[in-house]
Amino acid sequence: MKKYQGGKRIMKKTMSRILALGLTASLLLTGCGGSEDEGNDTVGASGEANAQGAGDENAIKDLVYPRLATRELETFNILYSQRLEDHENLCNLTDGLLEVDSYGKLQPCLADEWGTEDGGKTWTFHIRDGVKWVDMNGEEKADCNAQDFATGLEWVLNFHKNDSSNTSMPFEMIEGAEEYYEYTKTLSKEEAYALTAGEGSKFREMVGIDLPDDQTIVYTCINPTPYFDTVGTYVCLYPLAQGMVDELGGPDGVKSMNNENMWYNGCYTMTEYIQGNEKVLTKNPLYWDQNCTLFDTVTIRMVESSDVAYQLYQSGELDYCDLTESNIKTISENESNEFHDYMVPGVASKYSFQYHFNYNKMNEDGTPDTNWNTAIANEAFRLSWYYGLDFTNVWKRSDAINPMNCENNFYTMKGLCYTSDGTEYTELVAKELGLEVNGETPARVDKAKAEQYKKQAMEELSALGVTFPVEVDHYIPASSQTALDSANVLKNTFSECLGDDYVVLNINTYVSKVNSEVIQPHLHSIINNGWGADYGDPQNYLGQETYGSEQAYYSQQYSFINEITEETPANKALLDTYKEYTKLVEAANAITDDMDARYAAYAKAEAYLLQHALVLPVNYQQGWSLSKIDNTSRMNAMYGVQNEKMKNWRTNADGYTTEEAKALADEHAAAMKAQ
Questions:
Q1: Is the CB of residue 155 less than 8 Å from the CB of residue 145?
Q2: pLDDT higher than 50, residue 37
């Protein structure tokens, strides 16, 4: 088992361990993949950030950080949520088994030792002593131990408790997980609510989890899973205190809990919460990691737009702001502007964004939108978009200086994993696609192919009764001028690239929550949504688009392809394509003993997904900012939910100049290579 002693990681060099390390090492820069040199393997940010930041007299003690009003959290239950908007808050309030440092490497969190000795079939995690659950005011409630992790997993797998959220990874990986879930479905709500994860329980009998003592958890996987330790960063394996469940009156109380009555074991508690306005995080006085650097308080200000955030940064009311296209132009073109030398690269999102098509769209009166549904089921129609849409002007909204930084041609996020020879996974996909990415012009745009497929689509679809132009319904929040400006750029892109005779983008609005107002009633034609990895394997991306699975998030929740079960002349080819793609993903899933072969198989599946334009890759989020935070000190998690965990952040109350930020970035890159 992997052990941490005196800042050094000691490991048994079994083949299973080497495979797992390959996944961890894959988070480093290209060329640093493969197995690691044990002698160079240091703890990283956990020790270094404190040494560099804690004694700095210019460090910020009380951080004020903006988030757009559209990013309000919807739940305080981290076990339930699959939304970034929730995770970016809750990761500061609740800790899991492992975390990731600023170099992208797995580090101890509540588990201080972990490992496998049988090729990844079983994984053992030792929970550190002294972890406390506290209330909002930092007063001790109980010890956090192994039982809390069993209680958390039981909650996730209990159909009536967790409403089928975050079950996909346990289903795929842990023995008996799906069987237990199906068992709870057969019970009444009252019977399911009464179930626990205690010794001798039905859960412990059915599910591959063992608690040899109060501080040890052993998970048994269905198949050897060499990347299972990366799952230790995701919420499906987070703890839940039974004492809190009891105190809140049972599952219904947990579902409706708030910042005032929940229990915390993370680095902060949320001492104030005004929905849509402000949140105040206060340093947890009993936090287990007393050597880390934390802010005394973090005030999260909800702002209506990035332009408002910029104004607040100008007035000294914020410590960070992302810059819009117009902000960048204003600052860069005026050398006397006070921020001319202070623009720094923003925090690169770890999300790959795609346009997801709705294959079962409804009109507002609840009737099927037959015109759209027939059109989008046609492959030539989708391929005309794939080859025809040039998103350069859309990318300029994020990065007006170098919009090609935002170009995305893949489904899986770049940098997730590497082959044994250091090849980054999406390079395998590019090779399968025959795609050459030069960073200067959009790689897949081909006007001749777009026109060819447009002509073909209009002929085929006219024969099926489709009328042109096909209306494309796109929804934005009603209160966001930034969203409206971006939507208008997108509308112009559709018009210029595809023609108003072919498609017309309608800009529609919702009032508060896109899920309940738009997605659930199936009103959208397309939606731009990003996926960030929950664990370090391409399956976590590609599995979201498979046909027929309740655990395929996008198939179930956005594209609604799973609802298309009756074959018709209009949709037969679409269903056949989805089924073939699903077979390719399942074939890759079955390869567990050769990671290179596994990645190659996933690359074939991903290329097939894109060659048939079942989804449309759009962008990465990369822009520019003004920052009093050293962005290289943040957790660099390519998977899990911890990128916004405000731990060990280095700060400078005067802000960072462009030159200083570049020097820090170069130093950080060199340190990553050295590891």
A1: no
A2: no
